[in-house]
Amino acid sequence: MISEERFWSLIDVVNHDFDHFRDQLNTMDKNELKEFVWMFKDKAEEICEDDYLDYILEDIESITEDALEDLSGWVVGKGKEYYFNILNNPTDMPSQISDETPGINIQYEASQVYYKRFKEHLPAS
Prior knowledge:
This protein is an all-alpha fold and 125 residues long. It has one domain (4-118). Helices cover 68% and strands 0% of the residues. The chain has helices spanning 4-14, 18-27, 30-46, 50-59, 65-77, 80-88, 104-118. Helix 1 runs antiparallel to helix 2 (18-27) and helix 3 (30-46) runs antiparallel to helix 7. The longest helix is centred in the first third of the chain and has 17 residues, at 30-46.
């Protein structure tokens, strides 16, 4: 099972060197890689709940499901400190992506590595 510490250390790696992050994914066993993707998705979904959506919609009229997925993935991709600040302070939830920090593409990259290595689609969590 992937630990919280390992998860956040991988997020930190991706923010400094995407190629090294990809190398790290390629060293993970099947279960660890699967759990990384699931943990990323769970964390992103946690900040898509109504408490956070209310604050997003204060600044914009509406948001598509895809845009919300991108935004929540970006928040996770910003790292542990940023993520937990948002989790504990929904009023700080941004309404848009404001920099080039990798976001949902972290989850996509891990899913692609999984598919290439194990010749199967990642099962649903």
